[in-house]
Structure formats: structure tokens, C-alpha cells
Amino acid sequence: MFDTHSHIYLPKFDEDRDAVNQRAVEAGVKGIFMPAIDFDSIPQMEQLSHPDIEFYKMAGIHPCDVKEEVPEDLEERLLGYCTRNDFYGVGETGLDYYWSTELVEQQKESFRIHCKIAKQVGKPIIIHNRESTDDMLDIIEQEQDGSMTGIWHCFNGTVEEGKRAIELGLHFGIGGVFTFKNAGVDKTVAQLPLDKMMLETDAPYLSPAPKRGKRNEPAFMKFTAEKLAEIFGKSLDEIDEITTENAERLFGISQS
Q1: Is the pTM of this model over 0.90?
Q2: From residue 5, how far is each of 2, 55, 111, 129, 140 by CA, in Å?
Q3: Which residues, 6+ apart, have CB-to-CB distance to 33 below 8 Å?
Q4: In this structure, are residues 95 and 107 in contact, taking their beta carbons and an 8 Å threshold?
Q5: For residues 94 and 112, what is the distance between their CA atoms, to the nearest angstrom?
Q6: Do 128 and 98 touch, CB atoms closer than 8 A?
Q7: DSSP state, 127?
Q8: What is the DSSP letter of 50?
Q9: Nearest-angstrom CA–CA distance, 144 and 134
């Protein structure tokens, strides 16, 4: 299995990261994709290693970390990282209107810069979306030239929004919210194609049921996989295989 969205590099794991990684291995996790929060995330990522886990770095600025002035060198710095062979995606980027709507235009500007870089380097864009779905999809539609691919991280849209996202070249990151009883995400996901889905945790955030409220970690992805298997009437092994192949295809890698 791949955890396609984990902030395992954050200080919340500093005291027991080795144990967290070992539990991930025991749960069947072989690879962890790490979207950045900002450029300070990158040296944190570069310190990580484990003999049984591949760590895949990504570069970007989270919408909640966008400042009043988008840096003039954002595009140059992003391109510098994302052209490297050891970076596998662009993000995390996107829009977040939940915490604040004061910097919406700056968020949009930053998001468009990430889209430009993703097209330029031919790597997937990782999209954070909270209470901003229409604007997020509109920007993807405006920026899409047929070459852009990416993941709608923590997918929680409607069936119609999901279908539109697929038409625009996006895949879905299925994580903890999908397992919440009252969220209704499972009913939507059941009506969308499994070949557009991949597993994620967003660790240390958004732990799936039955671990809700606790610090999330890659090993907990098995609960999401089990729920996905239940929804689609497949075995856990089949879900592991399908979502792993989806991630390999999107990121252009082969699991060793």
C-alpha cells in the first residue's frame, strides 16, 4: 500500500517516528508520499529514512500558509524543487475558505502558480480543498491544457463534483473522513470509479474510525482500506492492489 498523503516529517512524530514507521510496515505500507506545508518542510522530509519504506517528497505551499504577499520567487523556488528527480508531485496547494477568507485572491494566485509548475514538470498536483469546491474546480478547468493530473486530497465532494473532477484529470485521495459515520462521503465514493482512487492518511490529522480523535499515522490507513473494500464488495487485498496500481500510474513509479 501507498499512503499518498502524509506529513510524517512533522515534529508531532519526532519522539516515536521509528515506532510509527515500523507499525506502518507491519500494516503493509511500503511507500509514503509527503506533501509540503511550506519550503521549511523539505529539510524535514530529507531526514527521513527506513529500510522498508520509500519516502516520496513533494514541494508546495499549503493554502493556509499563503501570506498577504505571494513571494515573487515562489514560481522559481517551486520549479527548482519540482524539476528534481527526487520530487514526485507539486503541493500541497489549493484553497481553504474554512479558516479564513481574507486572503482568497492570494490563495488563488498561489494555486495557479502551482498548476503552472505541475504542467511544466509533468508531475501530479496535490489539492487541498475546504469549503472552496466551485472555485477549486473552476481554476483547474481554466488551467487545464490536457496535461495536468493530480489528486483531490481528502475528497468530500458530491457525485456531480466528483464526475467533474474526473473530467478535469483529477483523482481522489480517500482518507479518514471517508470512514466517519455521519459524513456521508462513503455514499458518494461508492458512486465513483475505483480506478480514480488512492489511499491516504493526512497524518497526523483526520484519523479514521475507530481511531478518530487520536493522532493519525500511516498504519491507520488499513481502516480506510477495509471500509473501501466493504463499500465496493472487494477483498482487502484487491483494494490494496487497485489503489497501489492507481498511485503507481499517477506518480510514474514502480513499487519494488
Answers
A1: yes
A2: 9, 11, 18, 14, 20
A3: 2, 3, 4, 5, 6, 56, 58, 88, 89, 247, 251
A4: yes
A5: 9
A6: no
A7: E
A8: B
A9: 15
Return the axis-axis angle of helices 159-167 and 133-143, rounded to nearest 10°.
20
Q: Which residue has the cell 498504519?
A: 219
What's the confidence (pLDDT) of residue 256?
45
* Helices and strands (H and E) in the chain: how many: 9, 8
Q: If you count them, how many residues does the chain have?
A: 256
- Number of Cβ within a 10 Å radius of residue 86: 10
Spatial separation of the C-alpha atoms in residues 199 and 3, rounded to whole Å: 6
> Which residue(s) pair with 87 in the sheet?
57
Whether 220 shows a pLDDT value over 90: the answer reads yes
- Give the type of residue at 216: N
Cα–Cα distance measured from residue 151 to residue 32, given in angstroms and rounded to the nearest whole number: 15
Position 57 confidence tier, pLDDT thresholds 50, 70, 90: very high
- What is the distance between the terminal CA atoms of the chain, rounded to a whole angstrom? 12
Is the pLDDT reported for residue 65 higher than 80?
Answer: yes
The answer on pLDDT for 255 being more than 70 is no
List of domains in the chain: 2-251 (3.20.20.140)
Angle at 122 between CA 118 and CA 124, to 5 degrees: 60
Q: Per-residue pLDDT averaged across 153-179, rounded?
A: 97
Compute the radius of gyration of the chain from its Cα atoms.
Answer: 17
Q: Are 175 and 154 in contact (CB under 8 A)?
A: yes
d(CA 216, CA 223): 11
Distance CA 176, CA 155 (A): 10
